[in-house]
């Protein structure tokens, strides 16, 4: 079936360093990908999305890379800050299906 | 606040009772989604509406679950005869559907349900 997964459940980095969170997806028909950040007790917060006609998209301090050949997605966060500590989820969708399929999440901890 | 709102934020109920949650989407959004999230897991899709029409339901949505969006604005999710396995965070999201395809789904803060 369709699934979106993450390689690492936890990641710790030093404040100011860059972090990379990885994600593997299995549905070759997926054409929309999105990263969410979720802090404790809150709903997921949009970070960045990318469509399958692109392989890279940049936002403020974040970059998403998409490799459709190996069905891999990554989120790069530059110059991490304490406020970046959260659980990060990737999700994918097929344009006609609308629903997002989420992975398990990676907990990012920023060490001072 | 113009984001997605959900009420109540927390609900504790006894097994067998019925519960109802409400979601108010971003006002101009025509699509509304319900997801369920258990501890340590990502959200799982339950159902979604375009305006007042319920267009898709997950197999996770048993016959004890019903969702409505009567006027194409707010939505309610009712769980009848609650079971301990229903304990989870129920998330609502909304989006503006355009012909160009999928767009960002904005999530609300969720309703945490605890069934004793």
Helix segment count of chain B?
0
Structural class category of chain A: mainly beta
SS element count, helices of chain A: 0
Largest sheet of chain A, in brief, is: 6 strands, mixed
User: Rg of chain B, please?
Assistant: 14 Å
Radius of gyration of chain A: 13 Å
Q: Calculate the mean pLDDT score of chain A and round it.
A: 89
Q: Bin the strand percentage of chain B.
A: over 45%
List the uncertain runs of chain B.
none
Structural class, from helix and strand content of chain B?
A: mainly beta
Number of DSSP-assigned strands of chain B: 11
Major sheet size, sense and barrel closure of chain B? 7 strands, mixed
Q: Which shape of chain A, going by the Cα principal axes? A: globular
Distance between the first and last residues' Cα of chain B: 33 Å
Main features:
heterodimer; A: 112 residues; 11 strands; 53% strand; globular; B: 116 residues; 4-stranded antiparallel beta sheet
Question: How would you characterize this protein structure?
Answer:
The complex is a heterodimer of chains A (112) and B (116). Chain A has 112 residues and is mostly beta strands. Chain A has strands at 4-5, 10-14, 19-25, 32-38, 45-51, 56-58, 62-67, 72-77, 86-93, 101-102, 106-111. Chain A is built from no helices and 11 strands. In chain A, strand 7 and strand 8 (72-77) form a beta hairpin. Chain A starts with a strand and ends with a strand. In chain B, strands 2, 4, 5, 6, 9, 10 and 11 form a 7-stranded mixed sheet that branches. A 4-stranded antiparallel sheet of chain B has the order 1-3-8-7, with no helix packed on it. Chain B is globular and about 45 Å long. Classes of the chains: A mainly beta (112), B mainly beta (116). At the A-B interface, strand 4, strand 5, strand 9 and strand 10 of A face strand 4, strand 5 and strand 10 of B.
């Amino acid at each position: 079936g369709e699934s979106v997964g993450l390689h690492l459940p936890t990641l710790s980095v030093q404040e100011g360093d860059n972090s990379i969170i990885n994600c593997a997806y299995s549905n070759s028909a997926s054409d929309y990908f999105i990263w969410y950040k979720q802090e404790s007790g809150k709903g997921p917060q949009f970070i960045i999305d990318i469509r399958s006609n692109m392989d890279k998209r940049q936002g403020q301090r974040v970059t998403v890379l998409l490799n459709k050949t190996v069905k891999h997605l990554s989120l790069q966060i530059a110059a991490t800050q304490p406020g970046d500590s959260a659980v990060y989820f990737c999700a994918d969708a097929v344009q006609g299906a609308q629903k997002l399929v989420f992975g398990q999440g990676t907990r990012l901890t920023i060490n001072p | 606040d113009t984001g997605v709102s959900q009420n109540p934020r927390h609900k504790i109920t006894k097994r067998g009772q019925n519960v109802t949650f409400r979601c108010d989407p971003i006002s101009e959004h025509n699509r509304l989604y319900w997801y369920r999230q258990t501890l340590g897991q990502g959200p799982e899709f339950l159902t979604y509406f375009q305006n007042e029409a319920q267009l898709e339901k997950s197999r996770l949505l048993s016959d004890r679950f019903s969702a409505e969006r009567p006027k194409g604005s707010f939505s309610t999710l009712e769980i009848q005869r609650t079971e301990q396995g229903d304990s989870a965070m129920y998330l609502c999201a909304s989006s503006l559907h355009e012909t160009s395809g999928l767009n960002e789904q904005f999530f609300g803060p969720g309703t945490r349900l605890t069934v004793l």
